[in-house]
Amino acid sequence: SEYETAVMEEDALPQSESFQVLVSQIFDVDFSEITMAHLNQITELDLYYDDDNRKCISCCLDDGTTINYFLNEDLYMDLADLSCFKNVSWLALEYGHLNPGDLKGMHSLACISSDMTLSELYDAVPDPQNISYIQINSTIFMNSCDGIENFPNLIFFAADCSDMQDISALSSVPGLEGL
Asked: Which has the least CB within 10 A, 85, 89, 97, 176?
């Protein structure tokens, strides 16, 4: 039934090996013991490169604990697994590209940092009205702020875009306090 499918999607655990290993290491249990209660403790995720150019994931738990993990690049990673982390309010992606639906169910998401354009972020974020912070890292694909109006509650916006030519759309977000 549709209800059962919705419940299954709502309580989905990560399917890709990278995220399975990550949550097992965070909570120091076998993945077979991981529950949604474990995943709901994760409030921030940062996928980044360290100083030696190794892929890493840092996460913050609701008790303030921060855990850093070196990604084993031999393991498969599916960014759609990010949708399993329902209580994440901060997501930073230095690597990886989100597809529409990858963040489905992440209704707590308020801050995002990525190298994606505003229109790509709009397609990926489940609740654009909840986003208060956007940081666009270096991208050559964004030459204007068009699409920023899709984030009506945006308070802070930063973009590292050398080709940025038109910022007129910034006026469409009246609550914008910082650039």
From this structure: 97
Residue numbers of the chain with a pLDDT score lower than 50: 1-9
Letter string b/e over residues 15-27, b meaning 16 or more CB atoms within 10 A of that residue's CB: eebbbbbbbbebb
DSSP per-residue letters across the chain: -HHHHHHHHHTPPP-SHHHHHHHHHHHTS-GGG--HHHHTTEEEEEEEE-TTS-EEEEEEETTS-EEEEE--TTS---GGGGGG-TT--EEEESS----TTTTTT-TT--EEEESS-HHHHHHH-S-GGG--EEEE-S-SS--B-TTGGG-TT--EEEE--TT--B-GGGGG-TT--B-
Look at residue 7 in the predicted model and tell me its pLDDT: 37
Taking the alpha carbons of 138, 144, 149, 155 in that order, is the dihedral positive or negative? positive
Q: Checking DSSP bridges between strand 133-136 and strand 156-159, what pairing results, if any?
A: parallel
Whole-angstrom distance, CA of residue 89 vs CA of residue 10:
17
The whole-number pLDDT of residue 147 equals: 78
pLDDT at residue 14 in the model: 95
> Cβ of 76: how many Cβ atoms within 10 Å?
12
pLDDT of res. 33:
96
Say what the pLDDT of residue 5 is. Answer: 38
